[in-house]
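Memo to structure team: turn this sequence into structure tokens by end of day. - J.P.
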Amino acid sequence: MRPKNNRKPLRDEAPKVRRAPGSPTKSQLRAHADAIEQARFAKWKTVLGIAGTTWSKVHATELSRSNGDINVLAGLVQLRHALSRQEADSQVKAFYDQHMQIAPITLSSFMPAVSARPAAEPVVAPVASSAESA
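Reply from structure team:
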């Protein structure tokens, strides 16, 4: 029986590549994407009334179900206002540019601080001389 570490690849498998030190892990990238999505969703809830007045023929429940997805919203605007897709896309993009400004979430907030600390120097306690103790 052949040991596992000497197995031959089934096909031409690409070798595994390690990530560079200091680059984000998959879980950090996933957390970053989730944070951006949550921020966009929270901002959409605050802008929902403005979107309702901008596109009066789109019902409020349809707007809230779109969850701020730009493609879904453009489809609703196109359908309800009988516009071309390009016109609906341009209206929704202009709306997003004006109202959906989200504060940037940096990836560095999800990464642990990596600092090059110098090696700790040994602590030497001063030795009291007999002249000082007298």
